[in-house]
């Protein structure tokens, strides 16, 4: 059976595509190659298309028929929070119109299984120890809004058309399942700290006066290989279960502060990493940690890797990148 993976040339998508193939599936990569890396998908059949374009449903229909696609994992989206604040129309167009086009093509092709890439950015600034999926979502930026609207659209399609879908709300994804699939976008804490170390500069810590034990923000860092495994399990669940629609957090259930992440990176690097405290960054919740009971109940999934594994694999991917 063939599974289409949109965004397969990206950081998370490439992990998903490679894992599904290792597990015996045929994978059709769908990507506009705007941010992806060709080498990550050059061993897969590829449909190069921007899903938000008007011709996308027709192109997808033809590809789904040609490759006998049975299910879709949809990751293709724009994901820079700051950029989404500056260019909301572009984000809504890419992320929401892209999904609408995909759902249109799926319905026309009778492809009725979907795993949708959502985000903990849907929650906004929750003031709780651990966020569960029933919490009210109040996103605070257009990126998070597009993911929440995407979930609504998926739910509406599930009701209207019998689509079976799982929406996965990713927490802070990091690490590399293999060195050549590491994150090349230098936007998140771990790659940014590694870049600073490379330049001989101290790690920047955005605020140390938050109401947390060490004053720095707490997040739930999940290894990208564990996240890929959650997608594989979600697909298997859609094969078995008649329930049409689930929303599931993907995290570890454990929080780590910025200073704890820097310390874990220092350990993985085998050297000290000095820190410099910078002002708070706008829009950062002090604490964002997943409740992971539901994904364990529904998919039997738990993260197998911890922060040390994440940092070790990120450092290894960094060395691989520097060597190329
Ligand atoms: N941080 C620093 N120094 C840096 C970079 C980040 O102190 O150089 C801090 C941030 O202020 C924040 C924490 O590290 O407190 C994590 O920041 P990231 O930018 O790595 O991640 P975010 O939690 O802001 O956002 C990430 C993804 C979003 C996603 C969200 C979901 O980037 O796309 O997780 O929880 F929506």
UniProtKB/TrEMBL annotation:
Superkingdom classification of source: Bacteria
Keyword field: Carbohydrate metabolism, Isomerase, NAD
Primary enzyme class: isomerase
Catalytic activity as recorded in UniProt: UDP-alpha-D-glucose = UDP-alpha-D-galactose
InterPro entries xref list: Epimerase_deHydtase, NAD(P)-bd_dom_sf, UDP_G4E
NAD-dependent epimerase/dehydratase domain segment(s): 3-251
Listed cofactors: NAD(+)
Cross-referenced Pfam families: Epimerase (PF01370)
EC number: 5.1.3.2
Record keyword NAD present: yes
Pathway in which this enzyme or protein is active: Carbohydrate metabolism; galactose metabolism
Molecular function GO labels: UDP-glucose 4-epimerase activity
SUPFAM superfamilies, sorted: NAD(P)-binding Rossmann-fold domains
Family: Belongs to the NAD(P)-dependent epimerase/dehydratase family.
Protein's name according to its UniProt entry: UDP-glucose 4-epimerase
Phylogenetic lineage: Bacteria, Bacillati, Actinomycetota, Actinomycetes, Micrococcales
């Amino acid at each position: 059976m063939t599974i289409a993976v949109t965004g397969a040339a990206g950081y998370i998508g490439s992990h998903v595509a490679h894992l599904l193939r290792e597990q015996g599936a045929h994978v059709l990569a769908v990507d506009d190659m705007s941010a992806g890396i060709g080498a990550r998908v050059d061993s897969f059949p590829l449909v190069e298309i921007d899903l938000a374009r008007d011709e996308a449903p027709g192109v997808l229909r033809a590809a789904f028929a040609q490759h006998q696609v049975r299910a879709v994992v949809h990751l293709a989206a724009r994901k820079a929070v700051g950029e989404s604040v500056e260019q909301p129309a572009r984000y809504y167009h890419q992320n929401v119109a892209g999904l609408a086009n995909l759902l249109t093509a799926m319905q026309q092709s009778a492809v009725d299984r979907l795993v949708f890439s959502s985000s903990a950015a849907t929650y906004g600034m929750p003031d709780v120890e651990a966020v569960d999926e029933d919490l009210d979502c109040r996103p605070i930026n257009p990126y998070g809004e597009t993911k929440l609207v995407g979930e609504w659209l998926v739910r509406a399609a599930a009701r209207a058309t019998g689509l079976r879908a799982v929406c996965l709300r990713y927490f802070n994804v990091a690490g590399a399942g293999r060195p050549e699939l590491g994150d090349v976008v230098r936007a998140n804490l771990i790659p940014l700290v590694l870049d600073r170390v490379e330049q001989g500069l101290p790690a920047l810590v955005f605020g140390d006066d938050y109401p947390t034990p060490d004053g720095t923000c707490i997040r739930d860092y999940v290894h990208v290989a564990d996240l890929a495994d959650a997608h594989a399990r979600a697909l298997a669940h859609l094969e078995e279960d008649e329930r049409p629609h689930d929303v599931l957090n993907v995290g570890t259930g454990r929080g780590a502060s910025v200073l704890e992440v820097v310390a874990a990176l220092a350990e993985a690097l085998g050297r000290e990493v000095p820190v410099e405290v910078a002002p708070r960054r706008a829009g950062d919740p002090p604490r964002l940690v997943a409740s992971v009971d539901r994904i364990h109940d529904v998919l039997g999934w738990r993260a197998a890797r911890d922060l040390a594994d994440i940092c070790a694999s990120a450092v290894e991917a960094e060395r691989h990148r520097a060597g190329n």
